[in-house]
Amino acid sequence: MGSNWRWSWWLLVLGLGVMCTTIVSAGASKGEEPLVTRIGFGSCANQSAPQPIWNAIIDFDPQLFIWLGDNIYGDVRRPFKFFGEERTIGPWKNVPRFVPSSQQEMESRYHKAKANPGYSRLRHTAKVIGTWDDHDYGLNDAGKEFTEKVNNQRLLLNFLDEPHDSPRRKQEGVYASYTFGPTNRQIKVILLDTRYHRDPLRSDGSFLGSSQWTWLEKELNGPKTAITIIGSSVQVISNLSATTGPLFYLESWGRFPKERNRLFKLILDSKREGIFFISGDVHFGEISRYDCATGYPLYDVTSSGLTQAVEKAVRRPLNLIVRFVAWLTPTTMRVMNQNCRFRSCTYGLPNFGAIEIDWSATPVTLKLEVRDTNGYPVTGVKFPLLELQSLSMNPVTSIKLGRHKSHCSLEVNLPWIIRYRLAILFYFSMTVLLLAVIGFVYAVVSACRRCFRKCKFD
Ligand SMILES: *[C@@H]1O[C@H](CO)[C@@H](O)[C@H](O)[C@H]1NC(C)=O
Ligand SMILES: *[C@@H]1O[C@H](CO)[C@@H](O)[C@H](O)[C@H]1NC(C)=O
After folding, report:
1. In angstroms, what is the span from residue 202 Cα to ligand 2's centroid?
2. 436 and 323: one domain?
3. Same domain? 306 vs 376
4. 23 in any annotated domain
5. CA of 255 to the centre of ligand 2 (A)
6. Residues 344 and 431 in one domain
7. C-alpha–C-alpha distance, residues 401 and 392, integer Å
8. Which residues cross the membrane (predicted)?
9. Greatest CA span in the chain, whole angstroms?
10. Would you say the CB of residue 205 lies under 6 angstroms from ligand 2?
């Protein structure tokens, strides 16, 4: 009896063992990729500055990290100078403020960036992919006219450890796409090149160039994935220039309205669900959302930068003015909520982007956040993935004339008194200041005159 039991016991164990091995090897032979639940991203990292933010990114423990450009600062920036031999601003400006550096210098800057201890640690625990923006492309605000692009493409791809035989090294531009995760839980990442083929700013010409557009159309119409992340170095949804002009303008898809509409139409026509954007460039963090472009809300999570940030660019009490200006600048697309670190729901200190997907929740949920150097969220949204799946929404929403609706009306359609309030306040303050100076000078001069006359009579 006893030995019989023992035999059946051994047989059972053996049977289970064989079964498990078969299942595991079947899974492996099918090439099932591991589930992706955490993705980090970031932009604008000065290779010469301390980069403590990597600690927070490593703590977040992303399986994938995406560079969204300005991965190094490759060009040379001259200081603002009104006077002197090299004048970089004013109508008498005689030299450009930004100039490209030599190839050797670019290489050494990439080397420095790659050798950063924090980033090196991340490279061991996460897969790293990325695209570029102007400063690693080689020149501030540059587009297709910039001739160093061919060389610099090679340098970026070396930095990203792109295999030597990769077709990405042979194409014109660094755009690329990747698919991660197991069947039915796949994440597609599409990285755009917003530099290589871009026509000059203010031309309203092409943004991606025809070869990249053809490629993008094919990618969007390709096999469906649960989630599709489109990485663009510059913002897609927010058109800040509409409300900061004529004081200053920023680069964005909004500056090329025709191309932006083409992008939205491509998404709509592809009927692809689960798309959202990630972006960088602007030196602050922001989440924006556009409900009236495709059949579902289009989110754009902007994280910028890993070291470069608007509030860091000025001395201490002045950062409060920057924060106030951010709050004052009107927006129709920004996602506002109670949990933002600052009232404006933008974040002008170093930050990174954190994407979390809870595949085990029913329904599957998506958490998109911008986080600070300590890893704490400064703005974020959490919603069921289903929210990006209903193509039932009517993309053409009629809004009464003179009204505006958040996440739907364009910034350019805001009433002028709201749209230009930043400029109005600026010119008003300047006028008051000027009048005060004139008043003061007048008072001093007349006081002197009175005194002079009195002295003479005495
Ligand atoms: C990068 O950091 C270095 C060292 O702090 C600084 O000298 C340089 O101006 C910075 N570059 C940019 C583009 O901010
Ligand atoms: C964005 O703002 C700029 C500057 O005001 C404007 O020319 C452009 O048409 C706007 N784009 C969109 C899509 O509203």
Report:
1. 10
2. no
3. yes
4. no
5. 5
6. no
7. 25
8. 424-445
9. 137
10. no
Residues 308 and 452 in one domain: no
pLDDT value of residue 456: 77
- Testing ligand 1's pocket by substitution, the residue of 43, 46, 72, 101 carrying the most ligand atoms inside 8 A of its CB is 46
Residues 6+ positions from 328 with CB-CB distance below 8 Å: 421, 422, 425
Residue span of the structural domain in which 450 resides: 420-458
The protein residue with its alpha carbon nearest to ligand 1, atom 13, reads 73
Distance in Å, CA 98 to ligand 1 centroid: 14
CATH of the domain at 68: 3.60.21.70
Low-confidence ranges of the chain (pLDDT < 50): 1-3, 14, 16-18, 20-29, 394-398
Say if residues 234 and 208 touch (Cβ distance below 8 Å).
no
Is residue 308 located within the same domain as residue 334? yes
Is 16 among the domain residues? no
Q: Determine the residue type at 249.
A: Y
- Tell me the pLDDT tens digit for each residue of 309-342: 999 999 999 999 999 999 999 999 999 999 999 9
**pLDDT the model gives residue 32:** 80
Q: How many domains does the chain have?
A: 2
For atom 5 of ligand 2, the residue with the nearest CA is: 242
Residue 192 contacts residue 130 (beta carbons within 8 Å): no
Contacts of 69 (CB under 8 A, 6+ apart): 43, 44, 130, 131, 132, 133, 134, 135, 136, 137, 233, 280, 281
**Confidence (pLDDT) at 2:** 45
* 439 inside domain: yes
* pLDDT for res 397: 46
Residue pair 368/351 in contact (Cβ under 8 Å)? The answer is: no
**Half-sphere exposure for 176 (CA within 13 Å, toward CB):** 21
Note whether 145 and 228 are same-domain residues. yes
pTM: 0.90
H-helix or E-strand spanning residue 132: none
CA 430 to chain centre: 33
Whose CA is closest to atom 7 on ligand 2? Answer: 255
Q: What is the pLDDT of residues 372-397, one digit of tens each?
A: 999 999 999 999 999 998 755 544 44
**Residue 236: closest CA among 142, 333, 349, 368:** 333
Residue type, 199: D
Q: Is residue 7 part of a domain?
A: no
In this prediction, residue 20 carries a pLDDT of 44
- Residue 424: per-residue pLDDT: 96
Q: Give how far Cα 70 sits from Cα of 156, 276, 315, 317, 416, Å.
A: 11, 21, 23, 27, 34
